[in-house]
Amino acid sequence: MFLQQFFNALTLGSLYGLIAIGYTMVYGILRLINFAHGDMLMLGAYFVFFGSAIFRLPWGAAVAAAIVAVSFLGVLVDRVAYRPLRAAPRISALISAIAVSFFIESLAVVLFTGLPRPVYQPDWLITPFEVGSSRLIPLTLAVPAVSLALVLALLWVVYRTKPGLAMRGISRDIETTRLLGVRVDRIIAMTFGIGTALAAASGIMWALRYPQIQPYMGVFPGMKAFIAAVFGGIGSIPGAMLGGLCLGFIEIMVIAFFPLLSGYRDAFAFILLVAVLLVRPAGLFGQVQEDKI
Length: 293
Fold this sequence. Notes:
Number of strands: 4
Order of helices and strands: HHHHEHEEHHHHEHHH
Oligomer: single chain
Mean pLDDT: 89
Strand content: under 5%
Number of helices: 12
Structural class: mainly alpha
Number of domains: 1
Shape: globular
Radius of gyration: 19 Å
């Protein structure tokens, strides 16, 4: 039983962490909370659904196409909603982010309807197997493995490539980086593209883990991922992942050991947020100032 709950917590925490990374990347560069990030999670799940159910693409091809499409939409959102406000007060960009989130959700209701839809789950991901006295499905192992691979690939991009160096430069001083010849808008667009691609991957795995999609499915995961980013130290990629894992373990393990508290599961995330803001507002890795992403 403990092993099963452990992997459930690891799966949920990995998803929170992967979503949180998108928040922390954008904040690290622009000091902006992209509230539309959770809605990109929802779009990723819907695109896979329509790609496989309507256009009859193989499931793997639908996943790849969905991630590319959502990444493109992330770049488009930056171009339309955020880039014109680069020199405006930050509150203007924040209002724009909230408006984009509401727009995407409302458009999804119009286009996809508000009815929940079932999600196709490949048999090889949900066929249970036994480990001792516990029954696990491959999906509970695949989600943390894929999340870890994506995080390692992202860290390689950020710390071992020239675009990653430009990202870190922009996070420290955008104007100086521009004077050094870096195409700042292109790097910011790349950041949005990578962040939303991770959100799409998270949404696809979320839909596989909880096989139902609807237009508001990204709201609560997005909020909890934001809490995870704050807990880990918003602006820090390792902090975002660690914060997501901690939040996942808190939610699952408290319910596993105290079943009577299951009705308060969502409350734990907000209690954690208040506690972090009171005790350590900068988060676990918030004291690191040299590299903001």
